[in-house]
Amino acid sequence: VICSISWISVSVAESQIVNVQSGQSVTLWSPILTKNTVMTWSRLINKTTASCICFTARSKGNVQFCDGFNNLTFELKDNTSEVFLTIKKVHLSDSGIYFCEFFNSGKSTYHVTHLNVEGSEETQNTKSKTECNKTDETTYVMSLILGGLTVFLLVVVTGLVVSLGKRQAASGEKQDAQLHQNVDSDNLKAAALSVFSPAVRSRRPASQRQVETHVTYAASR
């Protein structure tokens, strides 16, 4: 049996697969490959060790259970063409590879069954924890994304406010400069007029200057 473990591991992909819910009973089936032989049901543990469940010599018909197994948990029946191993109440730990060995004249022949126990409480708890972990991871990633977007928007808004303030300050300085230029221009014009006014007056004819003097004098009297 141990020498055939590698062959069993390779052939399991092409073997029979049985799915069952935890707490139910399940019957593993195998055709009788050779007659008048010693027949053994075993289970492969950790893909390295074969653990005997029960065996029988078909010529005698009595069933013998191996250490750790009994008829309270397992039941073996056969007819002329088939053999059945029943597990009365399966648990998650019963999942694994089972094989029926027919030994005759120094040669072993196997029928392999892969038992998959589903829907156990432990499986549901594990599934729930996995879903919760996925939800937590998704929430964490979304939080990071939202946080990054918030920081980015704050930076953009701050940059816009600073840029707007600089533009307003520059515009105010430009207006002040233009205002100073206008004031200076007006002052220059006023100064020019004050400088050139006596000259203009001095270039008037004498008769006009006398009339202007007389008029001023009359008004004062």
Counting H and I runs of at least 4 residues, what is the number of helices? 3
Q: Biggest β-sheet, characterized?
A: 6 strands, mixed
**CATH-level-2 architecture of the largest domain:** Sandwich
CATH class of the largest domain: Mainly Beta
Uncertain runs are 1-14, 212-221
Shape: rod-shaped
Order of helices and strands: HEEEEEEEEEHH
Q: Return the domain count.
A: 2
Largest beta sheet: strand ordering: 1-9-8-3-4-5
- Helix proportion: 40-55%
Question: What value does the Rg take, in angstroms?
Answer: 54 Å
CATH superfamily of the largest domain: Immunoglobulins
Strand content: 25-35%
| Number of strand elements | 9
Mean pLDDT: 75
Broad structural category: alpha+beta
Distance between the termini: 152 Å
Domain Immunoglobulin: 15-118
Pfam families: V-set (PF07686)
Transmembrane segments: 140-164
InterPro entries: Ig-like_dom_sf, Ig-like_fold, Ig_sub, Ig_V-set
Brief synopsis:
This protein is an alpha+beta fold and 221 residues long.
Can you describe this structure?
By secondary structure, the chain is an alpha+beta fold. It has 2 domains: 2-119, Immunoglobulins (Immunoglobulin-like, Sandwich); 143-197. Helices cover 47% and strands 29% of the residues. The chain has helices at residues 5-11, 121-202, 206-220, and strands at 16-21, 26-31, 38-45, 49-57, 63-65, 74-78, 82-87, 96-104, 107-118. Mean pLDDT is 75; it is low at 1-14 and 212-221.
